[in-house]
């Protein structure tokens, strides 16, 4: 009964085109079926995948409560070679697939889910190099970036952040903590010593960037001390962070498709493990920029896809 | 009530986690769901004017369970949607400013005025607007003349329809409801070679609630002239049949939108406040709007232009019954009833162009020019009456064409040329001063210049303060000046434009991620108000006059709160006090107190429950109307939406006026419709949506 329900919920939108694979190869996309507005994120990624693949790639929508094992078992019969797994639901199904099937994953932040299954993961976490490049272009006077992170959520990203900072001539103070209390202490220490050449980075770390305790504190202190605060979460820009990078879903879809096509063609070079997101848009809080005294020329404004707040 | 409560109980049993782990990841990247919409292109924010009072998105509309624009607008602080007697046309009563036809509010669709030249409002045959194709509604309730021109008097409502980026594939919908309501719609977005398109079509029909009207203007005539003609007590004639169609094409900086609206409407409580079970309005509106924008014409220079054409006609397949069979005047008896069909055809061309310059440090300049050719090029009137010297109607044996003899109005034409300049001046890091000045030259009313000032202080990371000043000017509509032999409302060639000056202060505070509050205080002064006043001779309708000045002040509080567990609350409270300067009394009609509460609860991933409470209170009578004040009312709407996971369809049930309370909107002084205008009783509708 449960299996029947899972099929009812999860596989009904199976496209008749399934089976008309790419030149005899087998590629499919597994993506989560969720409501708007989040559905639009995956719709755009799927559009990018189809564009790069130059055809409509067979796709399977998976409901959150779908039976992943049953779906994986059905997929085994399809002789797939590569699967693009989107979101946690997609990864859950992919994890249960035959190890011979290559998995290219996207639409999640943390690589933990992908660890169980050797996969190429394009994370939703913006590349620290791109974040710090934006920072330098907006505030060239900044010399040091501080980030408070938890190893559980962000250690993998910090491994990318340190060389990125060095490449840009910035000092990255990556402060590792295991609990919120320690994180708060680190933020307080940061503000006690902060100088105009300091900037603070908020990663997508639920442990160290608590919305109710940490965010109001850092927003207020950065405003009062005229310090640059940037974030990997677009929502923080609306709240008052100076800028953020957020996924360019169409480009992300194209990148996922490129990676999958490369694996279909058995080309080397598809890196295993998590890669930070390079397909990004940028958002700027003009109110905060103005508070920091930045002169926003039209050229600078046009380099951001989204200007907030919508005043 | 029992069924919704049962449904609620069932839902409570099946409470699930409001936000899935999937959504948590996306929320860490995109922020809240509103930002997801923006980031995925379905709700691109405009750079708003400092005076914008409210922005309502498609997601807000869906959460409300609204099917018509008027249901949505009721949530805006300071705005109440009243009703006019003929066709029950909506009156957007902003901050205490009320009039019979409501030309004081400018309604735009994608920036193009929906104004009709005859009455100056959306047209008395407006007949509402479906909301399925609306991406966003922006409302500004203060003089907008410096931005939008002279008609932006008491406020501006801009409706932005869904464009190619708002529609991911197609959507079809069907709604069945009480009183014979049937709606079906289809919309689709996609690509056509290098261009993108969005298309929408909707058909809607309904018989209307047909509430009982206890006494009408003919009841008064009967008492005055000793006849027995009134159809009251009798039912409202508020059926409708409508078509809406949109086509939106986008190619690089170019945009071409075509919009078509057809309405066939019953006459409500009657064009002259006497029940008319026969009359039928038919209005047809076609708008074509071509625009081009280039954000970087030169490094510091942006530019754009727009050209729009609007064609509007108002016709009567069945003439209006002004008074029923047997109506008697000292000039004679209309044995079959008094009929008229005042038909008009309008053509409006609008051209505007602008340049934006940001080459000066701390300044954003925008300058624009425009020209409008507003041509009510044809009038036609069928009727069975003429007028005596004292204004009383004289019966004629049959309904004949009087277009060339004594029509209600001759064709009229007006042109307007304008220029404006606006500067957003960054005085200091947290201080911005917006200065706007617009000059309009009317071919018939001469010149007018209207300034606008807005000082914005970003006081803290989560607190903004604004001080605003604006002036507006409204040139009379053609019927206010040129209506010559109209049994309902006669024009007045000596009429002067009405003006308005508003001072406003606003605080916006966001104490936390889940709570936002806004408090606004306003004070305004209206001069030379144009209103209809009853003619001295009973039975001869009204005449437009400048009725003097009005002042008003008020407070508006609005807030939104997400306390968790999928619950979203939206509150607005408004209070205003207005004074008619000639009498020293309240000008009446508008609610002095208005409260709105929306509770939108996402019970689980698949179920959404909504409740709205709307309290309208303190509607006094204007001077000269001795009736007791209009009774306050509280309206409760409930909605339930089910969108199963993995399914492409959703179903919703909407219960309006759930408590079946008696709700009335004020009729005009001195009270020919003695018991005012009744609103719809409890109604139920069921809606099915399918995405493909």
Automatic annotation (TrEMBL), chain A:
<protein>
    <submittedName>
        <fullName>ABC transporter substrate binding protein</fullName>
    </submittedName>
</protein>
<dbReference type="Pfam" id="PF04392">
    <property type="entry name" value="ABC_sub_bind"/>
</dbReference>
<dbReference type="InterPro" id="IPR007487">
    <property type="entry name" value="ABC_transpt-TYRBP-like"/>
</dbReference>
UniProtKB/TrEMBL annotation, chain B:
<dbReference type="Pfam" id="PF07715">
    <property type="entry name" value="Plug"/>
</dbReference>
<keyword id="KW-0998">Cell outer membrane</keyword>
<feature type="domain" description="TonB-dependent receptor plug">
    <location>
        <begin position="46"/>
        <end position="156"/>
    </location>
</feature>
<dbReference type="InterPro" id="IPR012910">
    <property type="entry name" value="Plug_dom"/>
</dbReference>
<feature type="domain" description="TonB-dependent receptor-like beta-barrel">
    <location>
        <begin position="229"/>
        <end position="657"/>
    </location>
</feature>
<feature type="region of interest" description="Disordered">
    <location>
        <begin position="532"/>
        <end position="559"/>
    </location>
</feature>
<dbReference type="GO" id="GO:0044718">
    <property type="term" value="P:siderophore transmembrane transport"/>
</dbReference>
<comment type="similarity">
    <text>Belongs to the TonB-dependent receptor family.</text>
</comment>
<dbReference type="InterPro" id="IPR039426">
    <property type="entry name" value="TonB-dep_rcpt-like"/>
</dbReference>
<keyword id="KW-0472">Membrane</keyword>
<dbReference type="InterPro" id="IPR000531">
    <property type="entry name" value="Beta-barrel_TonB"/>
</dbReference>
<dbReference type="InterPro" id="IPR036942">
    <property type="entry name" value="Beta-barrel_TonB_sf"/>
</dbReference>
<dbReference type="Pfam" id="PF00593">
    <property type="entry name" value="TonB_dep_Rec_b-barrel"/>
</dbReference>
<dbReference type="InterPro" id="IPR037066">
    <property type="entry name" value="Plug_dom_sf"/>
</dbReference>
<dbReference type="GO" id="GO:0015344">
    <property type="term" value="F:siderophore uptake transmembrane transporter activity"/>
</dbReference>
<feature type="compositionally biased region" description="Polar residues">
    <location>
        <begin position="532"/>
        <end position="550"/>
    </location>
</feature>
<keyword id="KW-0812">Transmembrane</keyword>
<keyword id="KW-0675">Receptor</keyword>
<keyword id="KW-0813">Transport</keyword>
<keyword id="KW-1134">Transmembrane beta strand</keyword>
<dbReference type="GO" id="GO:0009279">
    <property type="term" value="C:cell outer membrane"/>
</dbReference>
<keyword id="KW-0732">Signal</keyword>
């Amino acid at each position: 009964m449960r299996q029947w329900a899972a099929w009812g919920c999860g596989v009904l939108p199976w496209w008749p085109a399934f089976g008309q694979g790419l030149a005899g190869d087998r590629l499919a996309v597994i993506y989560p079926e969720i409501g708007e507005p989040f559905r639009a994120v995956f719709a755009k990624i799927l559009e990018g995948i189809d564009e790069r693949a130059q055809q409509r790639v067979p796709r399977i929508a998976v409901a959150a409560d779908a039976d992943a094992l049953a779906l994986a078992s059905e997929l085994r019969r399809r002789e797939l070679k590569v699967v693009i797994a989107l979101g946690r639901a997609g990864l859950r199904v992919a994890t249960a697939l035959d190890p011979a099937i290559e998995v290219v994953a996207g639409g999640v932040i943390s690589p933990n889910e992908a660890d169980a299954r050797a996969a190429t993961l394009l994370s939703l976490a913006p590349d620290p190099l791109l974040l710090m490049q934006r920072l330098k272009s907006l505030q060239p006077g900044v010399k040091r970036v501080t980030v408070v992170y938890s190893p559980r959520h962000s250690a993998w990203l910090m491994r990318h952040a340190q060389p990125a900072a060095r490449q840009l001539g910035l000092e990255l103070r990556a402060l590792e903590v295991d609990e919120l209390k320690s994180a708060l202490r680190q933020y307080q220490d940061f503000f006690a010593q902060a100088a105009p050449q300091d900037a603070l980075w908020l990663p997508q770390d639920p442990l160290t960037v608590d919305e109710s305790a940490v965010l109001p504190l850092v927003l207020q202190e950065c405003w009062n001390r005229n310090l640059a605060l940037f974030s990997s979460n677009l929502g923080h820009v609306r709240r008052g962070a100076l800028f953020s990078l957020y996924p360019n879903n169409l480009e992300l879809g194209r990148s996922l498709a490129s990676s999958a096509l490369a694996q279909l063609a058995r080309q080397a070079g598809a890196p295993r493990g998590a890669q930070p997101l390079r397909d990004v848009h940028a958002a700027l809080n003009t109110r905060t920029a103005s508070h920091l005294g930045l002169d926003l020329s039209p050229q600078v404004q046009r380099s951001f896809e989204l200007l907030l707040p919508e005043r | 009530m029992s069924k919704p409560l049962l449904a609620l109980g069932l839902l409570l049993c099946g409470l699930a986690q409001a936000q899935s782990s999937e959504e948590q990841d996306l929320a860490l990247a995109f922020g809240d769901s509103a930002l997801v919409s923006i980031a995925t292109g379905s709700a691109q924010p405009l750079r708003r004017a400092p005076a914008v009072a409210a922005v309502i998105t498609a997601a807000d509309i869906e959460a409300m369970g609204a099917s018509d624009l008027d249901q949505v607008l009721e949530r805006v602080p300071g705005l109440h949607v009243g009703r006019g007697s003929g066709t029950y046309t909506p009156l957007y009563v902003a901050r205490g400013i009320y009039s019979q036809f409501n030309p004081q509010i400018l309604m735009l669709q994608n920036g193009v005025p929906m104004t009709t030249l005859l009455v100056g409002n959306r047209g008395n045959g407006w007949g509402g607007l479906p909301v399925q194709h609306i991406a966003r509604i922006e409302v500004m309730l203060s003089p907008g003349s410096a931005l939008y021109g002279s008609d932006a008097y008491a406020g501006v409502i801009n409706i932005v329809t869904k464009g190619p980026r708002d529609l991911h594939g197609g959507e079809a919908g069907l709604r069945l409801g009480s009183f014979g309501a049937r709606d079906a719609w289809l919309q689709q977005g996609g690509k056509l070679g290098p261009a993108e398109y969005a298309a929408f079509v909707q058909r809607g029909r309904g018989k209307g609630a047909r509430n009982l009207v206890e006494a009408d203007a003919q009841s008064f005539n009967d008492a005055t002239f000793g006849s027995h003609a009134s159809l009251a007590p009798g039912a409202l004639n508020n059926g409708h049949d409508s078509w809406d169609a949109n086509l939106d094409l986008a190619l690089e900086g170019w945009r071409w939108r075509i919009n078509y609206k057809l309405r066939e409407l019953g006459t409500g409580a009657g064009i002259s406040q006497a029940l008319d079970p026969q009359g039928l309005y038919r209005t047809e509106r076609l708008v074509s709007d071509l625009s081009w924008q280039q954000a970087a014409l030169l490094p510091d220079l942006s530019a754009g232009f727009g050209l729009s054409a609007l064609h509007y006609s108002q016709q009567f397949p069945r003439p209006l019954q002004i008074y029923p069979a047997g109506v008697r005047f000292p000039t004679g008896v209309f044995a079959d009833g008094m009929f008229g069909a005042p038909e008009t055809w309008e053509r409006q061309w609008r051209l505007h162009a602008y340049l934006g310059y940001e080459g000066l440090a701390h300044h954003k300049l925008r300058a624009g020019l425009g020209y409008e050719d507003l041509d009510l090029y044809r009038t036609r009137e069928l009727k069975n009456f003429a007028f005596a010297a004292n204004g009383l109607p004289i019966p004629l044996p049959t309904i004949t064409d009087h277009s060339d003899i004594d029509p209600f109005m001759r064709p009229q034409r007006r042109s307007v040329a304008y220029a404006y300049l606006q500067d957003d001046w960054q005085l200091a890091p947290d201080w911005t001063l917006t200065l706007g000045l617009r000059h309009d030259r009317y071919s018939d009313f001469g010149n007018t210049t209207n300034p606008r000032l807005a000082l914005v202080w970003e006081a803290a990371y989560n607190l903004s303060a604004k001080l605003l000043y604006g002036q507006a000017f409204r040139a009379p509509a053609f019927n206010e000046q040129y209506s010559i032999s109209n049994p309902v409302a006669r024009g007045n060639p000596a009429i002067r434009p009405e003006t308005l000056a508003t001072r406003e202060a606003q605080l916006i505070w966001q104490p936390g991620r889940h709570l936002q509050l806004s408090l606004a205080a306003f004070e305004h002064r209206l001069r030379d108000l144009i209103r209809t006043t009853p003619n001295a001779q009973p039975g001869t309708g009204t005449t437009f006059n400048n009725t003097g000045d009005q002042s008003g002040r008020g407070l508006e509080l609005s807030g939104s709160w997400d306390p968790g567990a999928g619950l979203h609350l939206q509150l607005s409270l408004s209070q205003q006090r207005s004074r008619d300067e000639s009498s020293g009394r309240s000008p009446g009609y508008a609610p002095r107190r208005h409260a709105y509460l929306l509770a939108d609860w996402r019970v689980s991933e698949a179920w959404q429950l909504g409740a709205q409470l709307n309290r309208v209170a303190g509607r006094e009578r204007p001077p000269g109307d001795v009736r007791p004040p209009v009774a306050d009312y509280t309206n409760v709407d409930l909605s339930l939406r089910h969108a199963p996971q993995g399914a492409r369809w959703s179903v919703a049930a909407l219960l309006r006026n759930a408590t079946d309370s008696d709700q009335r909107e004020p009729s005009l002084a001195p009270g020919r419709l003695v018991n005012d205008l009744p609103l719809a009783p409890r109604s139920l509708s069921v809606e099915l949506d399918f995405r493909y």
